[in-house]
From TrEMBL:
This is Hydrophobic seed protein domain-containing protein. InterPro entries: Bifun_inhib/LTP/seed_sf (IPR036312), Hydrophob_seed_dom (IPR027923), Plant_LTP/defense-related (IPR051636). Belongs to the plant LTP family. PEARLI1 subfamily. Transmembrane segments: none annotated. It comes from the Eukaryota. It comes from Linum tenue.
């Protein structure tokens, strides 16, 4: 008899609050030195592109990222794409983050 376990890497949208500075910079809301991407990207590294897209989308929709009125139906997918690209992920073909 034997057993094994696997550790699945998951993304928790609640952890993505650390992405605010990076996302604001990438969307040109802030001017100055680019914030480090590691704190933000570390929460979605190791997950599949679809899982990362779902996680970031959920964070954007629930205002976890604290961007309030800056994120709306028109630019939520732009924010999603910019953040995923910065973290070496791609938005899956046909994926839309509905607001």
């Amino acid at each position: 008899m034997f057993s094994y376990s696997t550790t699945a890497t998951t993304c928790d949208p609640a952890n993505l609050g650390v992405c605010v500075d990076l996302l604001e910079y990438l969307l040109k809301i802030r001017i100055g030195a680019q914030p480090a991407s590691e704190p933000c990207c570390s929460f979605i590294n190791g997950v599949a592109d679809l899982d990362a897209a779902l996680c970031v989308c959920a964070a954007l929709k629930t205002s976890t990222l604290g961007l309030g009125g800056l994120i709306n139906g028109l630019n939520i997918n732009l924010a999603l794409t910019v953040l995923l690209n910065k973290c070496d992920h791609s938005v899956p073909l046909g994926f839309v983050c509905a607001y």
